[in-house]
C-alpha cells in the first residue's frame, strides 16, 4: 500500500521514471519504518538539487505526512486487527523492539510484549481463581 501511495505522489509531483521508482518503493516498503524513506528522500533531494524546489517541497510534505503516516499509524492498526492485539500494544512493542533488537524487533517486539501480557493475564486469573476457591472451601 505504501509503495502505491508513494507512486501516486511521484506522478503528482512529476518525478522522472515515476513508474520504476514506484516499483522500487513497493519492494523496499517491506522494511518497516525506513523502507519508503530509502526511495522518496533521495528523490526529494534530487528534485531540490535539479531546481524543482516546488515539486521537492511538495514531495517532502507528501512524504512526511502521507507516506510516513501510513507506516506509523496504519501498519500497527493492520497488525493489531490481524493479530487481535490492542494497537497501542503493537506500537509500543514495535518501538521497544526496534530499540532492543533492531529491525527484527519491529516484528518481534509486539509478539514478545503480547506474550508477556498474556502470561501476566493468565497468572492473574489463576491466582484470582485460587483465592476464590480457597475462600469458598473455608
UniProtKB/TrEMBL annotation:
Pfam families hit by this protein: AI-2E_transport
Regions crossing the membrane: 18-39, 46-70, 90-120
Subcellular locations according to the entry: Membrane
Keywords per UniProt: Membrane, Transmembrane, Transmembrane helix
Membrane topology value: Multi-pass membrane protein
Signal peptide as annotated in the record: none
InterPro entries per UniProt: AI-2E-like
PANTHER family: TRANSMEMBRANE PROTEIN, TRANSMEMBRANE PROTEIN 245
Annotated protein name in UniProt: AI-2E family transporter
